[in-house]
């Protein structure tokens, strides 16, 4: 378990595309908890939207699952921890017909899932599906909880990077606006004749024409 999680923890401090972070997470899930499919879904209002899938058909990423129409998802979101659905569960499985290479309804299904929380609020779910009966056991629930916690950490990193990128772009646009105003003379003129005043104008000209202004605005 530890050998599987360490590389994922290391990934949190590395510069990676969001899709690669999620891909590695689901690959590690399937390596430790052998199953036929794994998925990470984000809660958007009444819908669960796939963020990453492994073992499910490609069109799964284009689907939106309404929670009220999928009781298994509702159970997972309302649970305080991981849940296992037995093969004879009467609740329909949202992924029937979506497992890669196996179209149609699946009569034998062993499934687990866990809610993912960010800052104490439900963010989505992590799900595992197996075609073989009794593939999972109650002993796997603790491992699934660990992966759900790691999924939450991965999502938090992605969100922080997105916020930072937006802030940098906003500051860049502000800097460009200031430069444009300085170029067309729209900025107020600083009047003065002293040596200190001239030194200040020289510094403003140097900084205004460099990327240092981006740092000063942060």
How does this structure look, described?
By secondary structure, this protein is α+β, with helices and mostly antiparallel strands. 44% of the residues lie in helices and 18% in strands. The chain has helices spanning 2-11, 18-32, 71-78, 141-184, 195-208, 212-217; strands at residues 37-44, 47-54, 65-66, 83-85, 110-118, 121-130. It has a 6-stranded antiparallel β-sheet with strand order 3-2-1-6-5-4, sandwiched between helices. Helix 1 (2-11) packs antiparallel against helix 2 (18-32) and helix 2 runs antiparallel to helix 4. The chain is elongated. The protein starts with a helix and ends with a helix.
The helical percent reads 40-55%
How far apart are the first and last residues' alpha carbons, in Å?
Answer: 41 Å
Radius of gyration: 25 Å
Counting copies of identical and different chains, the oligomeric state is single chain
Low-confidence stretches: 1-6, 213-217
Any idea what the CATH architecture of the largest domain is? Answer: 2-Layer Sandwich
How do the SSEs run, as a string of H and E? HHEEEHEEEHHH
CATH class descriptor name of the largest domain: Alpha Beta
Coarse structural class = alpha+beta
Q: How many structural domains can be distinguished in the coordinates? A: 2
Keywords:
218 residues; alpha+beta; Beta-Lactamase; 2 domains; 6-stranded antiparallel beta sheet; 6 strands; elongated; disordered N terminus; disordered C terminus
Set down the secondary structure blueprint:
Blueprint: H1 2-11, H2 18-32, E1 37-44, E2 47-54, E3 65-66, H3 71-78, E4 83-85, E5 110-118, E6 121-130, H4 141-184, H5 195-208, H6 212-217
Antiparallel strand pairs: 1-2, 1-6, 2-3, 4-5, 5-6
Helix pairs in contact: 1-2, 2-4
């Amino acid at each position: 378990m530890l050998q599987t999680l360490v590389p994922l923890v290391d990934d949190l401090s590395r510069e990676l595309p969001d899709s690669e972070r999620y891909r590695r997470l689901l690959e590690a899930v399937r390596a430790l908890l052998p199953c036929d499919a794994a998925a990470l879904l984000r809660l958007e209002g009444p819908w669960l939207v796939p963020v990453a899938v492994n073992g499910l058909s490609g069109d799964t990423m284009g689907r939106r699952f309404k929670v009220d129409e999928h009781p298994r998802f509702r159970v997972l979101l309302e649970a305080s921890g991981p849940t296992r659905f037995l093969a004879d569960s009467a609740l329909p499985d949202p992924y029937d017909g979506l497992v890669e290479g196996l179209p149609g309804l699946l009569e034998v299904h062993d499934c687990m899932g866990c809610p993912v929380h960010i800052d104490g609020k439900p963010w989505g779910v992590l799900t595992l599906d197996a075609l073989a009966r009794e593939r999972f056991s109650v002993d796997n629930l603790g491992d699934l909880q660990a992966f759900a916690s790691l999924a939450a950490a991965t999502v938090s990193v992605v969100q922080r990077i997105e916020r930072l990128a937006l802030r940098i772009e906003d500051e860049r646009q502000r800097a460009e606006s200031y430069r444009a105003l300085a170029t067309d003379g729209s900025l107020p003129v600083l009047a003065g004749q002293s040596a200190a005043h001239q030194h200040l104008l020289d510094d403003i000209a140097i900084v205004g024409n460099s990327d240092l202004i981006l740092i000063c605005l942060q």
